[in-house]
Amino acid sequence: MRLGSYFDQHVPAAITRASRLRGVDVLAARDDKHDRAGDNELLERATELKRILFTQDEDLPALAHQYQLEGQLFAGVVYSHQLRVSVGRCVNDLKSSPKRLSQMKCSIAWNSCRFKCAPGAATSER
Asked: Are 71 and 24 in contact (CB under 8 A)?
């Protein structure tokens, strides 16, 4: 199953546009009227829509890790550092991430995508 992506408000418009041009199934929080939503609400919204949350917010991987520890299900989080990854690299990684993440036993991924769990993260079938 290939999951769509849900981009939060921290993702630059250039990455959103380029991802869409490359065929990535993207719904941006700003297009979904959730651009002012908090981290919990964004993660819950992405899960409700069955989309992987892509973020450049450093707090979201920690929140996803907390969800894992508490046994809360969520669609997944892909994090990319704002300054360490170019737009092109980010888009290339995102093009492959939904398929790869949907095949993983882990819900947290790091971009530039080295798809691994956060240290100590619980894993479970999704």
From this structure: no
Q: Which residue intervals of the chain are DSSP H helices? A: 13-21, 39-48, 59-69, 87-102
Q: Which residues contact 47 (CB under 8 A, 6 or more apart)?
A: 73, 74, 75
SS3 at position 78: strand
pTM: 0.75
For tokens 């941006």, the residue is: 28
pLDDT digits (tens, 9 = 90+) for 8-54: 998 999 999 999 998 889 999 999 999 899 999 999 999 999 898 99
C-alpha 120/C-alpha 94 separation (Å) is: 24
Answer whether 120's CB lies under 8 Å from 108's CB: no
* Distance between CA atoms of residues 28 and 54, nearest Å: 9
Q: Which strands sit side by side in the sheet containing 51-55, from one edge to the other?
A: 26-28, 4-7, 51-55, 77-80, 108-111
